[in-house]
Design brief:
The protein is mainly α and 641 residues long. The chain is built from 29 helices and four strands. Strands 1-2 form a two-stranded antiparallel ribbon. Helix 5 crosses helix 7, helix 5 packs parallel to helix 28 and helix 6 runs antiparallel to helix 7. The longest helix is centred in the last third of the chain and has 26 residues. It is extended.
């Protein structure tokens, strides 16, 4: 019988971590065993430091920490170093091959035109400005990326596969980009997010709605509702409410008693969309919830339903406190604030403890009026409309408190008539002090959101023309994009007046940044006259003329760049059909104004101006949109077309 032997001795390496080297076979080994190579055995990777030491000292002075044959120490050392180098570069430990991931799902949406694809690559590669207070004339590409993403998403494109990692990195760094970025990236972003922990945010909330088991899969809905993560459950409830509000409410009610208080609050807030009278019984039960925040949210939702029982109870209390003044000869409003906050008021959402510096009675009164249906005040004051009621004098200095509460009610109930009456005429000389008197807590910006887009823009334009930009920044932020006339002209006129007064543009940097993103790109050519360096008036801030010139050059360059970006996304020769745009290979030689607007919210606009490759005249640089030259402004002219 043939026998073999196992190694009985080992050459001890110079380092304790080196693997053992098999010794030569003993004399008892048979010839057949000597001719067969030894069976390979798995070994740990050789320590990199030991390999370096052996290479520096030489294999004759330092035995390599690897298995070697006679006379082949240097070759074995080089082989081991090569293997270790590959391992180090891969940043992985050797391991058995895992199961290959399933292929990424297909995205049937059309691909971007070549020019738009290059533009997205530039926007994602930009790392922002160099810092400092002086920005120069180059557009801020980081502020244009959200607009580009929104416009591309509305046109139905998909993100290029090669740019998906950069797009996900940008969305990870900026939460404001995530909804539009994930929508453009589509299902392949979710596929990548499952393979990279740094992109796990894509699996939470936004981006998972396409995989929700709604519709004809009630068992899948029930399973995900009971087993899913909290963000998945919120997304599931929101999607189900949009499809079938009552089914969504039934799903929430099935587990409501066992949910945590913070989860109940978030679930309750998701009922705002498609809220109807059918939700009232559930919300009435929530008024007795053990969580104060849940109770107050349920009361707020019920107060937005004019026919709810809670709205009727609050109206009865408020009408008891507020009514026509019978003792005065002229029409007026008499106010008698509640003297206590009883248990019924507290159950209906009235917080008994006021904030610091606020009186109890005024605090209770404000909450009652805020939750009272506004339409009920017409009958209370003899059929007067909202404007007539607001114009009535209020006794005992309750006017500010009462009007503030009516403002909150108008916002909560989305009542445009009352919002219009409370805002009043924007150009009145005393309007700024009248609509926001000392001690008032009303928010004019929230009131403006109740008005239709066109009326909102007109109101803000008139307010700016009468009172300037100092109090209009937040108002501009709620106006539809791109700004239509007369709003755009009013903003630029106010900036021009500030420049002529010798003020530093830094005081208006916020408004200037909004103008870069929100002005209609068609205004670029009409703004060229403002890019010249003007003489500084007496008493002006030193160097203000040069700073203003840079600010207006940047504004013009940004507007032209936005027009070019829009033209790249919607080639005029094929209209707004993304599939045709992809087939055409990019924009044609027509101007950026051809094609329709992407709508409010994108900020891209359409424009009718000209650029270097879209008509006569000097055009913008493809990367920055900076004009090729700067025209000199001769005289101040109207900005309206």
């Amino acid at each position: 019988m043939t026998s073999t032997t196992t190694p009985t001795a080992a050459i001890v390496p110079t380092t304790p971590t080196a693997p053992l080297t098999p010794a030569a076979p003993t004399a008892s080994t048979t010839p057949s065993a000597r001719t067969a190579p030894p069976s390979p055995t798995p070994t740990a990777p050789a320590p990199w430091a030991d390999l370096v030491s052996a290479a520096l000292l030489g294999t004759e002075r330092r035995t390599p920490p690897v298995a070697v044959r006679s006379g082949q120490g240097a070759a074995a050392l080089l082989d081991a170093a090569a293997v270790s180098t590959v391992r180090r570069r891969a940043a992985l430990r050797p391991a058995p091959a895992g199961e290959r991931p399933a292929p990424a799902p297909a995205d049937p949406r059309p691909s971007l035109p070549p020019a738009a694809r290059r533009r997205l690559s530039l926007l994602l590669a930009d790392r922002g400005g160099s810092g400092g207070s002086r920005r120069g004339t180059a557009p801020d590409l980081t502020e244009l990326l959200p607009q580009w993403l929104a416009a591309a998403g509305e046109l139905g494109y998909r993100a290029p596969e090669a740019l998906l990692p950069a797009l996900l990195d940008a969305a990870r760094a900026r939460t404001d980009l995530r909804p539009a970025a994930l929508a453009l990236a589509g299902p392949r972003a979710l596929w990548l997010a499952r393979l990279n922990d740094e992109w796990k945010f894509a699996l939470r909330g936004t981006g998972r709605t396409t995989e929700l088991p709604v519709g004809d899969d009630p068992e899948g809905v029930r399973q995900q509702w009971e087993e899913g993560l909290f963000a998945e459950r919120v997304a599931l409830l929101t999607a189900l409410r949009r499809q079938d509000p009552q089914a969504g409410l039934a799903l929430l009610a099935s587990t409501w008693p066992t949910e945590r208080a913070e989860d109940r609050l978030m679930f309750l807030d998701s009922l705002r969309e498609d809220l109807s009278a059918a939700d009232e019984p559930f919300l009435e039960q929530a008024l007795s919830d053990r969580s104060r925040n849940v109770r107050s949210t349920a009361a707020e939702l019920l107060s937005t339903l004019p026919g709810s029982a809670l709205a009727a109870r609050m109206a009865q209390r408020a009408h008891t406190c507020i009514g026509p003044d019978r003792t005065s000869g002229a029409p007026a409003i008499a106010v008698e604030a509640p003297h206590e906050c009883d248990a019924g008021m507290q159950r209906d959402g009235v917080a008994p403890k006021p904030p610091s510096g606020r009186g109890e009675r005024s605090w209770w009164l404000g909450q009652l009026v805020e939750a009272t249906p506004l339409d009920g005040w017409h009958a209370r004051f003899g059929g007067r409309d909202a404007s007539a009621i607001v114009a009535l004098p209020v006794g005992d200095d309750w006017r500010t408190e009462l009007h503030d509460a009516w403002c909150r009610a108008a916002v909560r109930q989305r009542n445009a008539d009352w919002a219009r009456a409370l805002l009043g005429a924007p150009g009145a000389p005393s309007q700024a002090a009248d609509v926001s008197p000392a001690g008032s807590s009303r928010d004019l910006t929230k009131l403006l959101t109740v008005l239709p887009d066109e009326e909102r823009a007109w109101w803000v334009a008139e307010f700016i023309a009468a009172h300037g930009l100092s109090d209009a920044f937040r108002m501009l932020g709620v106006c539809a994009v791109p700004w239509a006339e007369p709003l755009g002209g009013a903003v630029v006129d106010a900036l021009d007046i500030a420049r002529d007064a010798g003020s530093y543009p830094w005081s208006f940097s916020g408004v200037m940044g909004l103008a870069e993103r929100c002005l209609d790109p068609a205004a670029a050519d009409r703004l060229d006259m403002l890019t010249a360096v003007t003489d500084e008036p007496e008493g002006a801030s030193p160097g203000s003329g040069g700073y203003w010139s840079e600010a207006f050059q940047r504004l013009v360059g940004t507007l032209r760049l936005r027009a070019t970006m829009h033209a790249e996304l919607t080639p005029p020769s094929t209209g707004n059909n993304p599939a045709n745009a992809a087939a055409s290979g990019g924009p044609t030689a027509a101007g950026p104004g051809a094609g329709t607007d992407t709508g409010a919210g994108t900020g891209m606009g359409t424009g009718t101006g000209t650029s270097a490759d879209h008509g006569p005249g000097p055009g913008p640089d493809i990367r920055t949109g900076t004009p090729a030259n700067t025209p000199v402004r001769a005289t101040r002219q109207p900005l309206a077309p």
